[in-house]
């Protein structure tokens, strides 16, 4: 029987698009696979159909293109529902749609790693996220490396080079300015020159509870 009396901690990882936050989250979870699970904020993207209905499809990834209150409800359940499985959605980059109930947070998971863009955003209701996290780490990637990775990612998912560059300029970078505003409030700032972090992490990048 699982020991649900062990304290559960929730670690947030935030950073601009292409910074390497997903890489960091996956690497951290791989260090403790029996007790850690990654819950990306991207699972709360609004569906394509809903974005079209709201007229927000051309800026997907902005703060108001996510189900913020669904994400808050999940974080609250993670903290309080220790004797049952809690299911979370994940985002499929190939279909560009969220998939419900795709990630199982089980009672033996004592470290929940949630990563996303707006964990330190102080407006539009997003300020309610930070109190639900024990710590929040900011991944700060060198600008040119991040932009190259972003453009390559968009091309991989079907955009032309020109379309990818336009999306980065018109959508990703305005969002990045919102994200960077929260950098000084992060508990830890991890510098990454190329968005790819080596594991295990150096000891000076860890916090005591990790």
How would you briefly describe this protein structure?
The protein has 5 helices and 7 strands, in the order E-H-E-H-H-E-E-E-E-H-H-E. It has 210 residues and is α/β, with parallel strands linked by helices. It has one domain (9-192): 3-Layer(aba) Sandwich (Rossmann fold).
CATH topology: Rossmann fold
Biggest β-sheet, characterized? Answer: 5 strands, parallel
Query: What would CATH call the homologous superfamily?
Result: P-loop containing nucleotide triphosphate hydrolases
Report the mean per-residue pLDDT as an integer.
90
Structural class: alpha/beta
Gyration radius, to the nearest Å?
17 Å
Judging by the overall fold, what is the CATH architecture? 3-Layer(aba) Sandwich
Topology (SSEs and partners):
Layout: E1 9-15, H1 21-31, E2 36-38, H2 48-54, H3 68-80, E3 86-92, E4 97-105, E5 111-116, E6 135-141, H4 143-156, H5 161-180, E7 188-192
Parallel strand pairs: 1-5, 1-6, 2-5, 6-7
Antiparallel strand pairs: 3-4
Would you kindly provide a written description of the structure presented here, covering whatever features stand out?
By secondary structure, the chain is α/β, with parallel strands linked by helices. It has a single domain (9-192), classed as P-loop containing nucleotide triphosphate hydrolases (Rossmann fold), CATH 3.40.50.300. It has helices spanning 21-31, 48-54, 68-80, 143-156, 161-180, and strands at residues 9-15, 36-38, 86-92, 97-105, 111-116, 135-141, 188-192. The chain has a 5-stranded parallel β-sheet, with helices on both faces. The chain has a two-stranded antiparallel sheet with strand order 3-4. Strand 3 (86-92) and strand 4 (97-105) form a beta hairpin. Helix 4 (143-156) crosses helix 5 (161-180). The two termini are 24 Å apart.
């Amino acid at each position: 029987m699982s020991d649900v009396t062990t304290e559960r901690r929730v670690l947030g990882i935030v950073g601009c698009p292409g910074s390497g936050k997903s890489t960091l989250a996956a690497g951290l979870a791989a260090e403790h696979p029996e007790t850690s699970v990654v819950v990306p904020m991207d699972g709360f993207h609004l569906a394509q159909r809903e974005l079209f209905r709201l007229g927000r499809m051309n800026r997907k990834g902005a703060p108001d293109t996510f189900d913020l209150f669904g994400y808050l409800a999940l974080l609250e359940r993670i903290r309080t529902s220790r004797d049952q499985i809690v299911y979370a959605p994940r985002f499929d980059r190939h279909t560009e749609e969220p998939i419900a109930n795709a990630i199982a947070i089980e009672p033996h998971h004592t470290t929940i790693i949630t990563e996303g863009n707006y964990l330190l955003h102080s407006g539009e209701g997003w300020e309610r996220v930070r109190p639900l996290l024990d710590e929040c780490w900011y991944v700060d990637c060198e600008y040119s490396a991040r932009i190259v990775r972003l453009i390559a990612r968009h091309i991989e998912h079907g955009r032309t080079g020109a379309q990818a560059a336009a999306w980065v300029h018109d959508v990703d970078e305005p969002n990045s300015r919102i994200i960077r505003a929260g950098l000084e409030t992060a508990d830890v700032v991890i510098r990454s020159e190329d968005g790819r972090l080596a594991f295990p992490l150096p000891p000076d990048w860890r916090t005591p509870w990790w």
